[in-house]
Design goal:
alpha/beta; elongated; Methionyl/Leucyl_tRNA_Synth; transit peptide; mitochondrion; Rossmann-like_a/b/a_fold
Length: 593
């Protein structure tokens, strides 16, 4: 009867997925490359952020894009440790009318403005531990070579022609708009003014002779690409939105401006009267970084994953794939799209004075703390809201109290006086649930914990593959809570190491909790690299034991030796994460003691 009730409580699915996992299956889940679990282990991967416009200082939306890409890249490196197998680029977009105008307003030459603001992005990304392998600036000579070569390929393939373009142009968005995408809104004087239907930015009527790309030829090829690969654009609502756009007419695209109007850019090869359209210029950066037009780029391009904000989806999901197809190349492998951050329910705006400085947030909440908040709270398919109280509450609850408190409990001298990874007792915690006997101490909830943590790496892998990093962190947080419940339930501080009855179970409780912490620390490395390093170092986990290939949870439970059993813990590292709300810190301390 006891065994039957235990099986009912645990559920047969949980048992089969967790407790019965074999060593080979665990390693399979842990070590495969992102997005291609069955690909060869040395397959390449190339992640990109957008290149960020330098007309203003960076804000948390820019940092969020970079963090998403960074987490995907770091997770991929955990699966495929070879440094040569993964590339990650970010950078700044430094050409265009908007830069030209911003520089004039600031009384600077465009190059001076670009240098100043690009340096701000580079400093932010260094401080935020963005692990990019390349920072590209579109004013670099290598990029000019790539853009002009790409232009030459399009021209040689008969896809560029010179014609009179007449229509609306939005300088803020650096894009041309058909009449159907323009509306009228009251301006400062109360008069109706034309604005972009999508962004709300002002537009002006433009009439000039430009080079035009035969975009209309690519409507059906783009539809075939997207219908043939439902994961080409993720999350799905954005994939659906692009297909809806492609149901509409796809007019040819102006890809140059008069140099007399726009001089800050890359000249059209052989025609100095024209400057290459800033979006064509900017998009080619993804090729520049991997060596285009040299042959080396060909081995990287098919593995490309773009991480972008939803406001630039059309440029990346329609214009860019069409340009690539026109140049004889494939569209990007994946386009991961995220939504925006609001502040206390309002859109960030200079006029409202609510633009959040990401560097001040890194100082206030720590680098790992703010990384965790943005990636834990950011949901790609809808806008997310920022306010200070939310950050403090989340970080104190999940990092300081739940995770930090668990580590402190399990490594405290009072409970773990030997400072080691204690032995696991198989008679106290047998691998077969439902067994009874004088030495058996494990309860049904304990088997549920082992099942949950055993399947956690697989869950996290699936969430990363689906661009749901927030769900991966939610899953880790849930298991941290379960582990705290396990420790609280068995109260090791009430057990006695000198007792022959208590000691085996006390060691087992600590062993299981430390094994859970090892899994959590390993899986948190892509999001909180310094905090994870601190946690794993405290557990005595060496640098070569931190990859997903080494993440075999609780091997003693499955009858295999544990390399950590009996090993000394690492040196004391202090609080894993200090509480931000110190007004409640003393209450928690009093409760724990």
């Amino acid at each position: 009867m006891l065994r039957i009730s235990l099986l009912r409580l645990l559920g047969r699915t949980g048992l089969s997925r967790g407790l019965c996992l074999q060593d080979s299956r665990l390693r399979h889940y842990s070590s495969c490359p992102l997005g291609a679990r069955d690909d060869a282990q040395d397959a390449r991967a190339y992640f990109t952020t957008p290149i960020f416009y330098v007309n203003a200082a960076p804000h948390i939306g820019h940092l969020y894009s970079a963090l998403l890409a960074d987490a995907l890249c770091r997770y991929r490196r955990l699966r495929v440790p070879s440094a040569a197998a993964t590339r990650f680029s970010t950078g700044t977009d430094e050409h265009g009318l908007k830069i030209q105008q911003a520089a004039a307003t600031a009384g600077l030459a465009p190059a001076e403005l670009c240098d100043q603001v690009s340096a701000q992005f580079q400093q932010l990304f260094r401080e935020a531990s963005i692990s990019s392998t390349d920072f590209i600036r579109t004013t670099e000579a290598r990029h000019r070579v790539a853009v002009q070569h790409f232009w030459g390929v399009l021209k040689a393939r008969g896809l560029l022609y010179k014609g009179l373009y007449e229509g609306w142009y939005c300088a803020s968005d650096e894009c041309f708009l058909p009449e159907a995408k323009v509306t009228r809104q009251p301006g400062p004087s109360g008069d109706l003014c034309p604005v972009s239907l999508e962004s709300g930015h002002p537009v002006s009527w433009t009439k000039e002779e430009n080079y035009i790309f035969r975009l209309s030829q690519f409507r059906e090829p783009l539809q075939r690409w997207l219908r043939g690969d439902p994961r080409a654009i993720t999350p799905e609502p954005f994939h659906h939105a692009v297909l809806q756009w492609l149901e509409e007419e796809l007019p040819d695209l102006s890809v140059s401006r008069r140099s007399s109007h726009l001089h800050w850019g890359i000249p059209v090869p052989g025609d100095d009267s024209q400057t290459i359209y800033v979006w064509l210029d900017a998009l080619v950066n993804y090729l520049t970084v991997i060596g285009y037009p040299n042959a080396e780029f060909k081995s990287w391009w098919p593995t490309t994953s773009h991480i972008i904000g939803k406001d630039i989806l059309k440029f990346h999901a329609i214009y860019w794939p069409a340009l690539l197809l026109g140049a004889g190349m494939s569209p990007p492998h994946r386009i991961y799209v995220h939504s925006h951050w609001t502040v206390c329910g309002q859109k960030m705006s200079k006029s409202l004075g609510n633009v959040v400085d990401p560097r001040s947030c890194l100082d206030r909440y720590t680098v790992d703390g703010f990384r965790y908040f943005l990636l834990r709270q950011g949901v790609p398919h809808w806008d997310c809201d920022y306010y200070d109280e939310k950050v403090v509450k989340l970080l104190d609850s999940e990092l300081a109290d739940a995770l930090g408190g668990l580590l402190n409990r399990c490594t405290a001298k009072r409970i773990n006086p030997s400072g080691t990874y204690p032995a696991f007792c198989t008679t106290c915690f047998p691998s077969e649930p439902g067994l009874v006997g004088p030495s058996v101490r494990a309860q049904a909830e304990d088997y549920a914990l082992v099942s949950a943590v055993a399947t956690l790496p697989k869950q996290v892998a699936d969430h990363y593959d689906n661009f749901q990093i927030y769900k991966a962190l939610e899953a880790v947080s849930s298991c941290v809570r379960q582990t705290n419940g396990f420790v609280q339930r068995h109260a090791p501080w009430k057990l006695n190491w000198q007792s022959p009855v208590d000691a085996p179970w006390l060691g087992t409780v600590l062993h299981v909790a430390l094994e859970c912490l090892r899994v959590f620390g390993t899986l948190l490395q892509p999001v909180t690299p310094s905090l994870a390093d601190k946690l794993l170092s405290r557990l005595g986990v060496s640098a070569t034991e931190r990859g997903l290939g080494e993440l075999y949870f609780l091997p003693r439970f499955h009858g295999h030796p544990c390399p950590f059993e009996g090993r000394r813990l690492g040196s004391e590292t202090g609080l894993l994460f200090p509480r931000l709300d110190q007004s409640r810190a003393w209450l928690l301390k009093a409760h724990r003691t």
